[in-house]
Amino acid sequence: MNFKISKKYLAIFLVLILGLVFLNLFPKPAKALENFIFKVFSPAQKLFIKTGNKISGFFEILLSIKDLSRENAELKQKNSELERQLTQLKETEKENEALRAALDFSEKNTSLFEIASIVGKSLQGAEDWILIDKGTKDGVEKNMAIVSEEFSLVGRVIESNDNFSKVMLITDKNSIVGALIENKRNEGLVQKEEGSDKIFLDFVPKNEAVEIGEKILTSGMDNVYPKSILIGKVEKIDASENQLFQKITILPAVDFNKLEKVFILKSK
Amino acid sequence: MTKTIKIILSLSLILFFQVGIFPHIAISGVYPNLILISIITLSILRGFKQSLIWTIIAGLFLDFYSLSNFFGISLICLIVVSFGASFAAQNIIKKTNPSSIILVFVAMVTLYDLLLLAIYKILGIGFDFTLLKFLVNIIYNSVIAAPVFYTIKKLFPAGKV
C-alpha cells in the first residue's frame, strides 16, 4: 500500500488542522455553520424521530399484548387507590393548599413557558442530549430548565445557537440535579448511576425510611432547576452497610426515547 | 461537485437513521454508530485516500452533534480509524474473507472508543465509560457492521462515488 503523501493530501491535512485550530479559537463561525446545518436537517430529523417513535410504539404494543389483562387488573387496583386518595385529599384541602404553596414553582419562580420540538439527538451513546428548535433568538439561554409536556424534568440547556439549543438530559453523566423525596423532604443529588442507564438519588442518610414508588422532585437547591418538578419515582433502594448514604435508584418520569415536544422554562 | 453532493446526501440519510431510529434499539444504553461503521466500510473497500472526503464530512457531522466544547475530536478519531481500516484491509487481511472483515470492525471500533476516551481524559471532559458499555458497543457495532458492509458494497461499487 502506498502511503506516500502527495502535495494534494498534505494541503488537505494542513487546511484541516488550521481550520480546526481556528474554529476552536474563534467558535463563532463554527456556531454559525452548526446553526445552518441544524436548520437544513431539522425537518427531516423531526420526521425520522417521529417515525422511529411510531415504529417503536408499534412493536411495544405487539410485545405487550399478552400482559394486557394483568395490566388491566393492576390499573383497576390503582384506580381504586387513586379514588381513595382523592377523597382524602378533598378532606384535607386546607393542608393541601399550604403544601401546594410550598411546592408550587410555577408562579414564584417562572412565568414563561415556551414549547419546542425535538429535532435531533446525540449520535454517540456516551452523551445524552437532545436538540430543540428554539435558540437565542427565542430568548433561550444556557441553564434554562426543560420539562416534558407532562411537566416532568427533562434536563437543562447547555448550549444555544440562534435557532437551536442543545439540552443535556438528566441521564447524562455530567448532569447533577438538586432533589428531594416528596413526602419525607430529604434532600440529595440526582446523578447518573455508574455503569447503567439509571439515575439515582445520593446523600440521603441510611436511617431515613424511604419507600419504593415515592416521588422525587427538584429541590431548587442547585439554582438551576426550579423547585418541585417531578423527576421520577423510587425504583430501588440500596442501604448496604458499607455505604454512608442510601443509594436510591430512580425510574425517570420521562421516557427520553419518545420525547417529541418539550417546554422551556424561562426564568423571570 | 456532484460527488460531494452525493456524499453529503448519503451521510445525511445515515445521520437521520442514526438520530431517529437507532436510539430505539439501544442495549444497555448503547446503540450502533452507523456513521462510524459506514466510514470503516468505505475505508476497507476503497482505501484511505479515496474515502477521505467521506471521513471529513462524517467527522464534521459527528462533531456538530456532540456536546464537547472542543471541535474536531470525532473528526480526528475518524481519520485515524479510517487510516487503520484501510491499512488493515490492504496489508493484513483478505477483503473477501468475512471473518477478517469482522475482525477489522472489532479492532477499529475499539480503536475509535479508546481514542475518544483518551482525548476526553486529556481534555478533562466527562465521558460515560464502563467496561460493560465498552464491550457492548464493540459487539453491537460489529454485528450491525456485516449487513451495512455488504449493503454499501452493493450500493456503491468501487469507483462509482
Structural class of chain A, by secondary structure, is alpha+beta
What profile does the largest beta sheet of chain A have? 6 strands, antiparallel, barrel
The whole-number mean of residue pLDDT values of chain A reads 84
What percent strand of chain A? 25-35%
**Total DSSP E strands of chain B:** 0
What is the total domain count of chain A? 1
Order of helices and strands of chain B: HHHHHH
Structural class of chain B, by secondary structure, is mainly alpha
What gap, in angstroms, lies between the N and C termini of chain A? 63 Å
Q: Show unreliable segments of chain B.
A: none
Helix content of chain B: over 70%
Number of helices of chain A: 4
* Assigned CATH architecture of chain B: Orthogonal Bundle
Q: Would you give an account of this structure?
A:
The complex is a heterodimer of chains A (268) and B (161). With 268 residues, chain A is α+β, with helices and mostly antiparallel strands. Chain A has helices spanning 7-25, 27-64, 68-91, 93-103; strands spanning 110-121, 129-132, 145-148, 153-160, 165-169, 177-181, 187-192, 199-205, 215-218, 230-238, 245-252, 261-267. The longest helix of chain A has 38 residues, at 27-64. Chain A is globular, with a radius of gyration of 23 Å. With 161 residues, chain B is mainly α. Chain B has one domain: Arp2/3 complex 21 kDa subunit ARPC3 (Orthogonal Bundle), CATH 1.10.1760. In chain B, 74% of the residues lie in helices and 0% in strands. Chain B has helices at residues 2-20, 34-50, 52-64, 73-91, 98-123, 131-155. Chain B is globular. The N and C termini of chain B lie close together (11 Å). At the A-B interface, α1 and α2 of A face α1, α2, α3, α4 and α6 of B.
